[in-house]
Write a structure and sequence with these properties.
Bound molecules: copper (II) ion
Order of helices and strands: HHHEEEEEEEEE
Structural class: alpha+beta
CATH architecture of the largest domain: Sandwich
Number of domains: 2
Shape: globular
Radius of gyration: 21 Å
Helix content: 25-40%
CATH topology of the largest domain: Immunoglobulin-like
Strand content: 25-35%
Largest sheet: 6 strands, mixed
CATH superfamily of the largest domain: Immunoglobulins
């Protein structure tokens, strides 16, 4: 699946290159490409400024937190890994339940916090617990991994201010 995605990505890149180089004036195309990349840099440096205000965020309770009950920071564990989440100051509800000061857990694996003004991505690195659960079992490659919790509201958008845990590091045997 990964190699298929890679192939698709490569095909897309090839197509882009072909269309970029397809012009009858290669010099002009090169110049345009350089201009484009020069313009890209400042835009990438400040993506927030070019985006609309973002989606409305639900308020969190001041001082609310989420945290790992297990594993402990620095623990050495083996697969499958038992993970238990704790929550303080907010109510745990399933996704879709629009209730003040509530949300559901998201486990971030080997990734940074996502943007706070849009729904938390759903992929292998961002696991949603939309059923309102507070524990799971995961399997990770042997080695060191970073885990982080982030609460999301009924639409999977982080609260304002965001309710997040400290990043913990575990070693999988
Ligand atoms: Cu979610």
């Amino acid at each position: 699946m990964t190699s298929k995605s890679l192939l698709l990505t490569l095909s897309a890149v090839s197509l882009a290159l072909i269309s970029a180089c397809g012009g009858s004036e290669p010099d002009a195309a090169d110049a345009a490409a350089e201009t484009a990349s020069a313009n890209d840099s400042p835009a990438q440096a400040a993506p927030a400024a070019t985006e609309p205000a973002g989606l409305p965020r639900s308020e969190s309770v001041s001082g609310a937190s989420v945290y790992f009950i297990t594993p402990a920071n620095g623990a050495t564990v083996s697969n499958p890994i038992d993970i238990e989440f704790g929550i303080d100051g907010m109510e745990l509800v399933p996704a879709g339940v629009n209730q003040p000061f509530s949300g559901h857990h998201h486990l971030l694996i080997d990734t940074e916090l996502p943007p706070f003004n849009q729904p938390i991505p759903a992929d292998a690195n961002h696991v949603h617990f939309g059923d309102g659960s507070s524990s799971t079992q995961i399997t990770l490659e042997p080695g060191e991994h970073k885990l982080l919790l982030l609460l999301g509201d009924h639409l999977h958008i982080p609260h304002d201010p965001p309710v997040t845990s400290e990043t913990i590091t575990i070693t999988v045997e």
